[in-house]
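Good morning N.,

You mentioned wanting to compare the apo and holo forms, so I went ahead and generated the holo version with zinc ion. This is what I fed in:
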Amino acid sequence: MSNVSICLFCQIANSTIPVKRLAENDDALAFPDINPQAPVHILVIPKKHIASHADAMPEDTALLGNLLAFAGQVAREQKLENGYRLVINTGPDSGQTVEHLHIHLLGGRHMTWPPG
Ligand code: AMP
Ligand code: ZN
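and this is what came out, ligand included:
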């Protein structure tokens, strides 16, 4: 696990680093990705530090479910009626660069499959 005190997304969650807070509740936050890969590219994170999806523990089950539901709520607010893609990069093979669990919410254009 990376050092929570210097974790980028922990610092965003606790407002040390300011971002446009698009939606939030006690456990989750949504904010725009700084390097958007689609017309809508939002990151959805738990406020609790979990380094990756692979580091989520059985006691995080409710949090994970709530995070997915929260991402759906954000997608609805963004009016992505034509669809969207949720991505959770996990570990080196996936290209994960920030070691704090996050869901990419991508939309506003047609997505190709398979992803690169
Ligand atoms: P991943 O590669 O799946 O770990 O995704 C990390 C994402 O965080 C990338 O899409 C980056 O563009 C994004 N990112 C990095 N720093 C920031 C930041 N300060 N604010 C918003 N998004 C960021
Ligand atoms: Zn963190």
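The pocket of zinc ion (ligand 2) is lined by residues 4, 7, 9-10, 49, 100 (CB under 6 Å).

Happy to go through it together on a call whenever suits you.

Best,
F.
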